[in-house]
Structure formats: C-alpha cells, structure tokens
C-alpha cells in the first residue's frame, strides 16, 4: 500500500495494514536541522524558494522520516500576503508576525486581499507542484492557518477576543473576509497538486474561546473553508490545540475527515466521544525531541492503543529534533499490526 493510499484510507476510517505516520506542515512543522544538512536546503532561505522548500519537505520521507510532504513550514504566509510584517527567523526559528495590520477588528480599510502572486504564496504553490511531480505515492499536504489564528495575526488578539463580545458585527465582517482569503489560497494549493488539506487554528481553541464562542465563531469559519475545498482534495484535517474536553461534544460538527489534537487531551476519551472523525496525534513533541527511543516507542504505542488512527506529533516539532527520533516514531507505526 502506498503512503498516499494509506493516509487517505486512515482519513476515511477504512481498515488498513497499519497506521500512517505524518506531520502535515504549516503550524505543524516537519523540518529538522538533520534534514537541512541532508538536503543542503536551510531556513530561512527555503521559506522564500519553492525549490528549496520542496527539497526540505522531500527530505523527511526520503530519509526514513514522516510519510508525507507538507508545506509551508510556518503559519505566517497568509498574514504576510495580507500586509502583516513578518520576521523570517533563522536556521532553527520559524517566521513570525511582528506587527498588526489593523488597529481594531473593524479597521477593514487597512486590510487588503491576499496577494496570491506574492513571493511566498507563489513559492508555496511552486513547492507543492514540484513535490506532486516528485513522487505521486507520497501524499502532498496543503496547509492553511486557521481563520481565528489568521485574524489574530492581523489585529491584536486582546482586541479581537474582546470584540467577539462587544462588537460581534465587526468580528463577523472580518471573519467572512478572512475565510474568503483562506479559501482562495487553499484553492491555489489544491490546483498546484495538493492531495490533503490541513487547517491548524491554535488561537481558536475551546480553552481560549470557551464552548459557546467556539461554537459561534470557530466552527462556522472552519466549515466555511471546508465546505468549499473538501470536494477538491482526498481528505481534510483540522488541528486544534489545548484541552478539548470542554468542546469535545462539538467536534463532530466540524466538517473535516480528521481531528488532530494536543498531547494534553486523552485520545481514549476523545475516541469515545467522536463518532464521525478519524483521530490524529498526539505524541508529545517534547518527548519526540528528548525521550529515549524505547520510551518514545512506548508512548506511540499507547497513542495507537487508545484510538489514534494517524500517528503524528501533537504539534510542530522543534528544528533541533534528531531525525533518528522521527524515524523511531515512524518505525512505531510501521511495526503496528492491523486490528
């Protein structure tokens, strides 16, 4: 079975030979320094060069690492293309937004549509195109910053969250605009050749918003993207950080194939509460970087025993993580027998 067929099968909750082991990209960065050394492609240059970006992404599966390609390697591409200033980081630090475009949630005149011809959006799509041609058996994963996370990269989060209560009409206008821009970028990535779409929304968690606001704001925005892109890809993943217990009863309302989640959420409990989703995660990124191989394998086994369908880090891995640790995680999935 190819890596692509295995991942799509897992997303659709089909019976498989074993679980796949992936790291999607975007917020869930998959790149480590060992891969930079093996491919002669490095950060921050690769963030701006589609060929180097593709080489880095390919360096994982081609060297025994994660069983997918995933770009970009951060969650700043969309905000930058909409006018936000971004620091490109360095060899071990990802790019980050360093200023806000909007003075408040209603300051729409300061906001521009996403420029899909901008350097980085174009290079992400170029990387996807190159990766799709490189090996059609490896899944190419497109990544979008979640709608609330993008909104809070454009306006100060404290103002945005306050306006959810005090000026919901302003927030709705902003969210509608953000969703539209994300759909445009998502379509561009799909047209470039992406097989699977991941949306990661670390600022739109149940812990931050609370259940009522999560249901009011996060779910409709996510579904606004998924409803327009799902039919164009082979599968969809939504990643939500933090503890999910308070919003677990709402997760089936998200129209993705899969929910990816943090290590602080119990896979066993979530598996009991979700009836329509495959589960992805949720191995601690700290453990992936620092645990002994034996302990890491035990942790991976526990995750799979508790109901994980797609073995993956609970978040993006640090660039200092040894590739050998990633291989250990992948080997844990490869050694798993079908149940």
TrEMBL record:
It comes from the Bacteria. Pfam families: URO-D (PF01208). Residues 4-335 form the Uroporphyrinogen decarboxylase (URO-D) domain. GO terms for molecular function: uroporphyrinogen decarboxylase activity. One of its GO terms (biological process) is porphyrin-containing compound biosynthetic process. InterPro entries: Methanogen_methyltrans, UROD/MetE-like_sf, Uroporphyrinogen_deCOase. This is Uroporphyrinogen decarboxylase (URO-D). It comes from Dethiosulfovibrio peptidovorans DSM 11002.
């Amino acid at each position: 079975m190819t890596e692509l067929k295995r991942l799509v099968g897992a997303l659709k909750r089909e019976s498989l030979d074993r679980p796949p082991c992936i790291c999607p990209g975007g917020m869930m960065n998959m790149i480590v320094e060992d891969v930079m050394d093996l491919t002669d492609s490095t950060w921050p240059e690769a963030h701006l060069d589609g060929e180097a970006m593709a080489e880095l992404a390919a360096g994982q599966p081609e060297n025994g690492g994660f069983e997918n390609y995933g770009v970009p390697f951060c969650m700043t591409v969309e905000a930058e293309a909409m006018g936000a200033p971004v620091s490109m980081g360095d060899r071990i630090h990802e790019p980050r937004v360093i200023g806000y475009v909007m003075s408040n949630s209603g300051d729409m005149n300061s906001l521009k549509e996403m420029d899909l011809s901008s350097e980085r959006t174009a290079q992400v799509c170029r990387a996807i195109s190159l990766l799709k041609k490189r090996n059609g058996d490896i899944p190419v994963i497109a990544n979008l910053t979640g709608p609330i996370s993008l909104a809070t990269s454009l306006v100060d989060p404290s103002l945005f969250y306050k306006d959810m209560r005090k000026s919901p009409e302003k927030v709705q206008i902003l969210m509608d605009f953000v969703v539209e821009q994300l759909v445009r970028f998502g379509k561009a990535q799909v047209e470039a050749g992406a097989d699977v779409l991941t949306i990661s929304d670390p600022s739109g968690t149940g812990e931050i918003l609370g259940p009522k606001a999560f249901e009011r704001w996060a779910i409709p925005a996510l579904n606004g993207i998924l409803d327009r892109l799902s039919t164009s890809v082979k599968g969809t993943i939504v990643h939500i950080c933090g503890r999910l217990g308070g919003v677990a009863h709402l997760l089936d309302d998200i129209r993705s194939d899969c929910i990816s989640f943090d290590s602080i959420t119990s896979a066993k409990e979530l598996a009991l509460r979700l009836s329509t989703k495959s589960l992805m995660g949720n191995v601690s990124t700290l453990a992936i970087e620092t645990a002994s191989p034996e302990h890491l394998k035990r942790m991976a086994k526990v995750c799979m025993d508790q109901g994980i369908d797609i073995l993956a880090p609970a978040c993006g891995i640090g660039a200092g993580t040894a590739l050998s640790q990633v291989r250990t995680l992948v080997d844990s999935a490869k050694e798993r027998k079908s149940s």
